[in-house]
Amino acid sequence: MKTLNKFVWGMAGILAAFTIYSCKPSGPSEAITGDAASKAYVAPGKYDEFYNIVSGGFNGQIGVYGIPSGRLFKIIPVFATFPENGYGYSEESKPMLNTANGFVPWDDLHHISLSTTNGEHDGRWAFANGNNTPRVARIDLKTFKTVEILELPNSGGNHSSPYITENTEYVVASTRFSVPIGDNTDVPISSFKKNFKGTVSFIKVDTSGHMNIAFQLVTPGVSFDLARAGKGPSHGWFFFSTYNTEQAYTLLEVNASQKDKDFIMAVNWKKAEEYLKQGKGKTVKSKYAHNVLNESTHMSSSEILEEVMQLDPAELKDIVYFIPCPKSPHGCDVDPSGEYIVGSGKLAALIPVFSFSKLQKAIADKSFEGDFAGIPVVKYESALYGEVQKPGLGPLHTEFDANGNAYTSMFVSSEIVKWNVKELKVLDRAPTYYSIGHLCVPGGPTKKPHGKYVIAYNKITKDRYLPTGPELTQSAQLYDISGEKMKLILDFPTTGEPHYAEAIPAELLMPKSQKIYRLEDNKHPYAALGEGKTKVERKGNEVHVYMTAIRSHLTPDNIEGIKQGDDVYFHVTNLEQDWDVPHGFAIKGANNAEILIMPGETQTLKWKADRVGVFPFYCTDFCSALHQEMQGYARVSAPNNNVEIKYSTGKIEDQITGAGQ
Ligand code: K7E
Ligand code: CUA
Questions:
Q1: What's in the GO CC field (predicted)?
Q2: Which of 125, 140, 179, 277 has the most neighbouring CB atoms within 10 Å?
Q3: Ligand 2 within 6 A of 628 CB?
Q4: What is the CATH number of the domain that holds 332?
């Protein structure tokens, strides 16, 4: 989205008159006071009404905020290493970031989807996309931990992702950058039309949440931007916005903006399932990683898969249809009733709303205007319900409330526009500060929106916050939508660059939130389930320390017999069975990070003993009055110095005096 700026400014004509500053920064003078501000006030000790699960963009993380207070509760590392808790640094979590390209400790996370049952939030999981090295992650909302990451083969730029079907049957992920796929990928870039393909991966989610790619649709080389599943009457269908149907491969700013209309792609996935059952799929070789956290061993593992099933919609009729949509559509959103599909052409001067029932009729009547790469193109008018005229400039995304209204973000005119879905009439506008990207109404993408608020996630914050050098904070803005007019009630900073977010009522997650890991369930192979079980073992040049942590000591806290060149594995089990008492572990000179061990959990820090000496280690999380005492020493001896492995806690030996030893 950072590039959209440039893209929009590159367009001649209607948009030329606007500059990024068209919405004049007016600054703190527009401060919100009195009644409005008090709506966002959550008194000390009181809980927020909603959890806001917010993508972090280029930080590869998710931020968890309270609404209406805007308070930040947690950062969940997903595709990025996180030294704060050792994610991607501990031996247990490293496999989570494995890919067919090896260890990839970063990604660009734009969208999240909260799991649904019957089209309503069920509070089980959040899914998130990695754009760059195409991946989809699953986060468990009991522990707020990333528990699974599945890489997507034959994909470039996994942007149109992760979108879910009504009962979380599938998570769907499609490609922004078409790429050559198959056996021969060493082709001229200029052979784009012939060799470059898009793919839409349908990832099956089982009842325990585990993901596997059921099939991929191979499509013509266009860019998929966003997507939404049908619901209610349109359950069984999926809708995708596309751009670059020009199939340009250079200077897209100009070359991908030639056509007056791109497409919404409608996919009948129930039909695709039938073809799959009839054996019409083709197994294709491709390598991709599947990483899973085992919550009883606390270890993640990574497996490289070798094959994926593909379906060709040009051959297998009745799966895919294109609907013309003006102009370079970005968002593609389905209203709570499942009847209306909103395409937001970021260069269009109107918002088209398509009707699912009209689309069905158009397909039945074969009301086509032709085909695109062998796939039927439905006539625009035959699928169109109507157009919202003069909504604003640069429509991007649309969310819905429970009263038949839609809220569309306008990047260029920097506002949220409220309009009535059935009547296609603009009802209200509220400025955003500045250049809104995504927006979120709690429950907005579900069958039963919770409403109450709309939250804007902005691209520019100039003058809203204290300056912090060349880059200012990222930010969101909260509007009360309980009345007819939207009312700005809060600005709050966010981490990373927020794109899509969802908000879910606190009562759906709070009761499920896990407080500890039960020690009796800890099946970690290196766990020490009691101080009596601690030990230090040498295996060749590996030293394994089975360590425990409890307020306020580490066992063992004196370790000798490590040799220079050894790889030392500190397997630390937190023996606490009490909520909110993690212990941390860090050792001098470690080339990675600390580990933060939750109550009842075991985590491992690998440390290369690359020099001779005595090295302090300690607990990093202020856990008790004697936290500063929670420390120890590891002695590393020269390889030729005959020091036996020896370890203890609380053992006072006769003091050795004098030099040496
Ligand atoms: Cu509009 Cu990447 Cu969802 Cu950002 S995308 S705004
Ligand atoms: Cu344990 Cu500080």
A1: cell envelope
A2: 125
A3: no
A4: 2.130.10.10
Residue 480 located in a structural domain: yes
Does 159 sit in the ligand 1 pocket, CB within 6 Å? yes
Say which residue the tokens 């899973």 belong to: 292
Residue type, 635: R
Between the CA of 409 and the centroid of ligand 1 the distance, in Å, is 11
Do 271 and 361 share a domain, yes or no?
Answer: yes
Same domain flag for 455 and 391: yes
Asked if residue 59 is part of any domain, the answer here is yes
Cβ-based neighbour number of residue 387 at 10 Å:
15
Using CA positions, which residue lies closest to atom 6 of ligand 1?
A: 437
- Residues 477 and 503 placed together within one structural domain of the fold: yes
Best residue among 5, 107, 110 to mutate for probing ligand 1's pocket (most ligand atoms within 8 Å of CB) is 110
Q: What 3 state SS string does 575-631 have?
A: CCCCCCCCEEEEECCCCCCCEEECCCCEEEEEEECCCCEEEEEECCCCCCCCHHHCE
- Residue closest by Cα to atom 1 of ligand 2: 583
Is residue 228 within 6 Å of ligand 1 at its C-beta?
no
Q: What is the mean pLDDT of each run of 10 residues along the chain (661 residues)?
A: 43 40 47 78 97 98 98 98 98 98 98 98 98 98 98 98 98 97 94 96 98 98 97 98 95 92 97 98 97 97 98 94 95 98 93 98 98 96 98 97 98 98 98 97 98 97 94 96 97 96 98 97 98 98 98 98 98 98 98 97 98 98 97 97 95 68 46
As for how many domains the chain has, the answer is 2
CA of 168 to the centre of ligand 1 (A): 22
Which ligand 2 atom is nearest residue 627's CA?
Answer: 2
* C-alpha 133 to ligand 1 mean position (Å): 17
Handedness of CA 442, 265, 222, 135 (dihedral sign): positive
Domain boundaries, position 605: 526-650
